[in-house]
Design goal:
This protein has 2 domains: 161 residues, Medium-chain alcohol dehydrogenases, catalytic domain (Quinone Oxidoreductase, Chain A, domain 1, Alpha-Beta Complex), CATH 3.90.180.10; 143 residues, Medium-chain alcohol dehydrogenases, catalytic domain (Quinone Oxidoreductase, Chain A, domain 1), CATH 3.90.180.10. The two termini are 17 Å apart. The chain is of the alpha/beta class. It contains 11 helices and 15 strands. Strands 3, 4, 5, 6, 7, 14 and 15 form a 7-stranded mixed sheet that branches. A 6-stranded parallel sheet has the order 10-9-8-11-12-13, with helices on both faces. Strand 9, helix 6 and strand 10 form a beta-alpha-beta unit.
Amino acid sequence: MQRYLVGKAKSGLGLHHQKASMKAIYYDKKGPAREVLLWGDLPLPEPQPGEVRVRLQVSAVNPSDTKARGGFRNQWAMPFPRIVPHQDGAGVVDAVGPGVSKDRIGQRVWVYEATLGRAFGTCAQYTTVPEHKAVVLPEQADFVAGACMGIPAMTAHRCVLQDGPVRGQTLLVQGGAGAVGFYAVQIAKLEGAQVIATVSRAEQARQALLAGADHVINYKTEDVAARVREITKSDAGIDRVIEVALAPNIELDAALLKPNGVIATYASDANQAPAVPFPALLAKHLTLRFVLVYAMPRQAHDEAAHYISEALKHGRFKHQVFQRYGFSLEQVIAAQEATESMAHVGKVLIEIDQSV
């Protein structure tokens, strides 16, 4: 496959044109990975006021990264003329902008939301982000663990804890082996909840149990409602649901929840306009909570970052990695396609080659 080299980036990256350059994956138009992803030299970014520059070691592929590149929901317009993909990653701060302490240089960090409102993500040798989005990585955690955080772990934290403590409660995590569900199970267990997780195959069941789920239900082969009632030993139901597929599950969730329960949902990919069973939700005074990490307030991000860093510091999180690809055009294409296929279990990561 041909590798493309460019002399300088188009406008929109917010970079100074300069001799220093770096290797990066980028795209100038949206479409399938094999048709639009390019590899080449881009100008080395300089941190602006309040920013740090990170020399990246690992970049993570999230579903939102591939959706943004692939024109999800028919959103084909490019927010910037050229985009370096991937929100999350991990590396070492090597430069700081005005207003940022030079003490940050040399810190190992995990990076989140690198391309939120920006063109420059983590699928490159370097990236720049506002300094609060480069969170100190505890020495107990490696760069792989750091890159796994960001979008999935922050989403899980918000879903589980936004509506208060869960100690003594029973939570249903739909998709307990998914990127978000895997951490939602762990956070709920750390906070003292009983956790029931749903999966669709044996490999996922093993991962949900690894995360700490007390009970796992295969929704393809078992009656979820009957199993939940068997587990809870009553018709009283569960306290909260963490939901990855709102449209097909909302009626089941409403039926299983106790009065004043909560559905915290972060996805409904199969059906973007789910029907709401209003009488069922109304009768139990249920809360339908929508969680989008990119729209969360700064305080929620800071709380999640602190919680995640403490968990990493004390070795409380397990991580699931599907494959660690290298830093070449062919390998990044394979990584993005693997993420889109949804056939695997675990995080897809890119190990950044700093030698090329």
